[in-house]
Please model this.
Amino acid sequence: MFSVFSGCSPKEVVETPSETEVETPVEEPQVGGGGTFTVGIVASPGGVFNPALATDSYDFYITDLVFQGLLQLNPDYELEGVLAESWEVNEEGTEFTFHLREGVLWHDGEPFTAEDVKFSLEYLANPNYPGSRASYVSSIKGAEAFKNGEADTVEGIEIVDGNTVVITTEEPYSSGLLRFGTNIQIFPKHIWEGEDIAKALEATELLRNPIGTGPFKMEEFVPDQYIELLPFGEYWNGAPKLDKMIFQIVNAETGQAQMLSGGLDYFYLSSLNSDDTELYESMDINVYGVTYNAYQYMTMNLTMDMFKDKTVRKAFAHAVNRQAVVDDLLEGNGSVSNNPYPPEFWAFPDNLETYEYDRDKALALFAEAEGWDYNEGDNVMTYNGEPVSLELKYSTGNKVREQCAALFQQNLKDVGIEVDLQVMEFSTLFDLVKRGDYELALVGQGNEMDGDIKKFYHSTLIEELGSDSGSNFIRYDNAEVDRLIDLGLTTIDQEERVGIYNELALLLNEELPVVYIYHWPSGRAVTNKLKGFVEAPYKANYYYDIENWYLED
Amino acid sequence: MEVFLKKYILRRLLMMIPVLVGISIFIFFLIHIAPGDPFSSMIDPSVTEEDRENMLESIGYYDSIPVKYVKWVSRAVQGDLGYSIRYSEPVVDVIGRRFGNTVLLTVSALIFSALVAIPIGVLSATKKYSIFDYIVTIISFIGLSIPVFFLGLLMIKFLAFDLKLFPISGMQSIGKDLTGFARFKDLAHHMVLPVLALGMINTASLMRYTRSAMLEVINQDYIRTARAKGVKEKVVIYKHALRNALIPVVTVLSMSLGYLLSGAILTETVFVWPGMGTLVFQSILNRDYPLVIASTMLLAIFILASNLLADILYAAIDPRIKYD
Model:
């Protein structure tokens, strides 16, 4: 009765994909036949469908289909050409050359050119640029001069023989290919050059009707309800097989029911748990975990004297039962964290100290630390003679983290530390943490794919207490950590980089600027009617090879 | 009477102006004092703090609150309510697209609850302490104590998921491009569950009010007189008693518009109804300042207007009430 989305495609067309195709002679690109694919998302995109201006993660679900970068990461974490056919980097790591693909068209039929690439890069360097990605190009030679109005173009972005773009940086830049190739997506010069850049965020019409080079083009955007995308017939890698893609806004609680009843073909799950997984699988729906390159942690305010000694921080790590968080709260979907990188990530080192849950060890470490004193009889921990009573701040919206707070409260009580739980919404929590107005707090942090963690740990990014503008808001200051971060950013050879980042991870594991708690996957439920789908370990390539996805009847 | 009423409405409308100014100041300061900023939920690890600050700068985040307020008022009186930060669209358009949906839901729920609650309330008053009265009382207490989101989820579970009688969420079947009557039917189909859920929370209390108002009136002297005169019981109840009992009921009904609006926030979230409820909720979480202020102001106007409506309706029902 209420099966709106299934069975829309005529049966006879569905047979076309892959093998059978060999026998038919090459014809005009044939669009579709692969069915209507409905994706459930739990909040509406805002409608800023421009890759340089979007900041909302729900907008990216759309821009990632409509727009493309020069390169992309495949599921094996290797670079592949997208709008660039080939690329090279000079030995010093200061010159990045991209040979562009020929014959690529924008959705409006205009040809894609090197001018579009130059435009998209310079856009970010423009002094009036109102978006969040100016730092992506700040390392390019002449970007500063352009920004200050001293130059008309960015010197380090050059078009050579019409179809090649060379980007030159001031200093060796190990992340250059990822940054320029995959983080920056190209949008059309002919559409956007006439638009006042300072007012770009008010160009509602252009933002809502994006023209890209990607496999899908915008058909209709109805805020708070749905987005409809159609396959782009002239897509450079062959027309997509799906007839239509619909992103439907659903409620996080009832989306599951919609997925189970066949109303959705694909649904993002914020977390995995075995009951849900079993339920999905009993209905012929596959559930895939996607590892976040991220970690959840408990920060202990490092500006307070009581937390300055790493022995104390280690004692806390032993005092809380992180294994129970993973086993019971995450139901085994995830792993205990002891450094910033998840086990699946290339920078993850061997021989991490694991800080097992061990009350005796915790107490032994507290005994070692100056000022801390434990009275077994009353079960009271004192610091400088005062009983220790701390506030643990955390935010709503993540069930595991909420339960984790209660568990830690219990665990810390076992070592005589009173913990007062304070729950608040995320914006408030984050603001207080950034200003240093907290004692203990539970937060999550994401990493970049190149392994760089400068933003969070480098001492030059600390601001005074009360300011909310330092990105190293845990206010961690360690010269050796700084050195390794800088070295990683300027080393080009990937093997050398693995060594540097392993060392960095081990150092953080030993110093424990925060108590790392867990790494976790998000999930996606996918109908088993979907064929051609490539399981990707990271969110970075969740749409990998989408032009070859189709629904089997 | 006509002239009095016009004057009265005009005076009430003028009185709304200082009230609205007060509300705007209050909301404006409250939302700006709250910690966080429009980009604090942006946790993209590749965005630097400097870029984030530039973005905040460009939306005037670093001005002091009184300066921000003066800027806002001077634009607002010219009809410019600014751009929504999240939607990159004039606030007026963002709200315009959703307000109608909320009014549709709220008014339908109001009509539904009036149609159900008033007759049942009257019946249970006339059959005081009968089995019918007890059952209604029990049901209405259950109705009063179930939170609307829970009721909504229950309905989705049984009526939409198990029995597949209604769609789970949304306000239209997506990807069907329906027109005309088919479109209306589709909309009505999608409306059933949210209207039921939202209407229920109101029905229970309205039923109680109707019942007690009726009981009070039935014991009045003039009702006894009417009965003593030999007027038929039906006429006594429906002409003499009901009309007088309706006065407090109308007040409750009009006032409950505001109550329904707040219930709509939850109902809309559960049923993914694209109205003001979800919008206000999301815009507060995102600290989308222009949108928060404009939409809360609109809700305030809506509630003030419904109170005014209640007062005017008095006159239509109770000729004794005079406006001066």
